Amino acid sequence: MENIITSKDNPVIKLYQKLSSSKKERLQYGLFVLEGMRIVEDAVKENSGLSHLIMTKQAYEKFGETFFQADLRNTKIIVISNELGRKIALTDSTQGVFAICRMPSESTVKFKENGRYIVLYGLQDPGNVGMIIRTADALGIDGVILSGSCELYSPKVVRSTMGSIFRMRTAVENDTERLFAILKENGITASASVIDRDAEKITECDFKGSHAIFIGNEGSGLPGDIALRCDRRITIPMSGTINSLNAAMACGILMWELKKQT
Hints:
Layout (H helix, E strand, L loop, with lengths): L3 E2 L5 H11 L1 H7 L1 E5 L1 H9 L4 E7 H12 L7 E5 L1 H7 L8 E6 L13 E6 L4 H14 L3 E5 L7 H6 L9 E3 L3 H10 L2 E6 L6 E2 L8 E6 L8 H6 L2 E4 L11 H14 L2
Parallel strand pairs: 1-4, 3-4, 6-7, 6-11, 7-8, 9-11, 9-12, 10-12
Antiparallel strand pairs: 2-5, 3-5
Helix pairs in contact: 1-2, 6-10
């Protein structure tokens, strides 16, 4: 077994803690952190560029053999004490498996004929963003674009994707003018998801060709000017007195309908 690290002043441990707590540090180093056996294993399977694999002594004895079978020639493996693992963990019941991962050198969505895309405009809940990316992966959506939303590589977003962040094509475009220009250049019809009985019902929409659906902020929805700039306005018909849904739930329904016509 590797020498067991017990000090939080170890350079790798200090780096891990910086990355886990600071967006600025993540962007500066081009690195982000992972915690949990499943998501670290997914990162290894998808060749997602682990720079460091960190395991507690207990996790090393339990899971180490799984990783020994993978190609980790460019990954430094570090074993830490169980106590140190609990100190750096962001979850209450940690499995003792952590990693530092390189951000993709290029984060872009490839547009294609009859493509299906989601634009997350102003979403601020990391759990919602992560769940939408996970659902998009499950449904075969061609790309997710974040605009003015929470950070893609924050630990909470990454954890909520359950590994889909390594498979789903994602991009960040915070310049609204450029965002709409890109969609127009690629012949993509933009649909604004709104709560409005006068909007086109999602169940009656024609999704021939390439389409992108805009999902707005959890509390306030899409800004009015953004909805007007889209090619059309669509809505999920609801019964009773309910007039809104959780953003991730609503997006799941929209993506399901979007994919039905492919």
